[in-house]
Amino acid sequence: MTTEERLAKVERELAQIKAGRAVADEVRARRLVLVDDEGRERAMLDMDEDAPVLCLCDEAGEVRAALGVNEDGPRLYLLDPDAASEACAVLGVDKNGPQLNLYDAAGKVIWSAP
Predict the structure, then answer these.
(1) Is the peptide bond before 81 cis (omega within 30 degrees of 0)?
(2) Per residue in 58-79, pLDDT tens?
C-alpha cells in the first residue's frame, strides 16, 4: 500500500468516525460505562478483582442489579431500591449446584434454597 493509499484510507475512516458510522470489530477496555441523556451512569461493565461485573443502575445512579462471574461461578444480585437497605436476592451457581438467597433490609438471610 502506498503512502497516498494509506492516507486516503485514514481519511475515509476519520470521516466515518465524524459521521458516527464507524463500527469497530473489537473494543478493549477495563471499564465500559453507559450514560443516559442526562449524563448519569446507568450501566457499567467492569473488571472487579480479576472478575467481570455488569451493573445496572436506576435513574438515581444506584446499582439495582449486578451480574458477576468469579472462580466460584456466576452470581446475579437484585438489590433494593433503598440504597441504605441490604435487602436483595442473590442467585448463583457453584460446584455444588444452583442456590438462591433472599436477604432482609438488615442483610439477614430470610429464605434460602437449597
Answers:
(1) no
(2) 999 999 999 999 999 999 999 9
Report the amino acid identity of residue 19: A
Domain containing 106 equals 25-113
| Burial category of 55 from C-beta neighbours within 10 Å (exposed 0-12, middle 13-18, buried 19 and up) | buried
CATH of the domain at 51: 3.90.930.1
- pLDDT level of residue 25 (50, 70, 90 thresholds): confident
* Structure-derived torsion over alpha carbons of residues 105, 107, 111, 114, reported in degrees to the nearest 10: 150
What pTM did the predictor assign? 0.76
Whether residue 1 lies inside any domain: the answer is no
- Per residue in 81-101, pLDDT tens? 888 899 999 999 999 999 999
Judged by DSSP in three states, 43 sits in strand
DSSP 8-state secondary structure symbol assigned to residue 18: H
Question: Is the separation of the CB atoms in 103 and 91 below 8 Å?
Answer: no
Evaluate whether 58 touches 40 at the Cβ level (below 8 Å).
no
